[in-house]
Specification:
Purple Acid Phosphatase, chain A, domain 2, six-stranded mixed sheet, 21% helix, 282 residues, alpha/beta
């Protein structure tokens, strides 16, 4: 099952009693902030929208252990945009692990998206879980690619530990059903999938980029994409098209025995100004 709304896979995590040692995670993605706070993407003020998402998350009262920010974090890749984002993320008071997307400049991001809680690591061990953060960016290109060094990083992270593992990146390694988006996915997704298919400890692959939800199972692995904190793309569309779904985020509960529970939540209100007539953006 792959869907624009996580369907049967979308759980109400507040109704679960998870065992001790469960790692609770907030994923945010595709924030598309700018140097100028007033800037808009496709008619929406991305800073205001991100603030609304953070407030919606706080209203859940769900206690997370860490935050994952999975790319396209600053649309213009500006140092001031990254500094502002670092300040906002630092306010969670929790570890925040970030990876780049195609609108980010990885070197600039790693230099300026830093604070006491915000980092850009490659491998993180938390509790009973290992999280691998891959860089799929081709600088100057919209689509993604995992260089040999990134694939080697993944292989070594899996060889060195049998902990349940969540693999994260920006670009989708599988088709999500929208032709125009899938033309800009990970061009060597099969290489990634060959590695994780042979690794029984990999329990989830998580990404951004597609500005919509996707949830499917590939053998023992849960495949997940999540809504943007600003603009959403219409699912199952051959050409560029916007969706009127609200901005959102994903919660994950990773249990000590390697199970992945997850829920996608959205803000109550749609931000004003969405330009549904737009034929694309850069």
């Amino acid at each position: 099952m792959s869907s624009s709304n996580t369907g049967a896979y979308n759980e109400d995590l507040s109704q679960h009693r998870f065992p001790p040692g469960t790692l609770k995670v907030l994923q945010i993605t595709d924030t598309h902030l700018y140097a100028e706070p007033e800037s808009r993407l496709l008619g929406i003020n991305t800073l205001d929208s991100f603030r609304s998402v953070i407030e919606e998350f706080r209203q859940t009262g769900w206690p997370v252990d860490l935050v994952l920010a999975t790319g396209d974090l600053v649309h213009d890749a500006s140092p001031s945009g990254y500094r502002q984002l670092a300040e906002m993320l630092d306010a969670f008071g929790l570890p925040v692990y970030c990876l780049p997307g195609n609108h980010d400049q990885p070197q600039i991001m790693r230099e300026y998206l830093v604070s006491s809680h915000v980092t850009t690591p490659q491998v993180v061990d938390r509790g009973n879980w290992r999280i691998v953060l891959l860089d799929s960016v081709i600088v100057g290109e919209v689509g993604g690619h995992l260089e040999d060094a990134q694939l080697t990083l993944l292989r070594e992270a899996l060889r060195d530990s049998d902990k349940p593992t969540l693999v994260t990146l920006h670009h989708q390694p599988v088709a999500v059903g929208s032709q125009w988006i899938d033309s800009m996915g990970l061009d060597n997704g099969d290489a990634l999938l060959r590695i994780v298919d042979q690794a029984p400890q990999v329990r989830g692959v998580l990404w951004g980029h597609v500005h919509q939800t996707y949830d499917d199972m590939r053998g023992h692995i849960r495949l997940m994409a999540s809504p943007s904190t600003c603009v959403q793309f219409a699912p199952n569309s051959d050409d560029f098209a916007l969706d009127e779904q609200q901005p959102g985020f994903r919660l994950l509960a990773l249990t000590p025995d390697g199970k992945v529970h997850s829920q996608v939540l959205r803000t109550l209100d749609m931000p004003l100004g969405l330009d549904l007539a737009s034929s694309g953006y850069e």
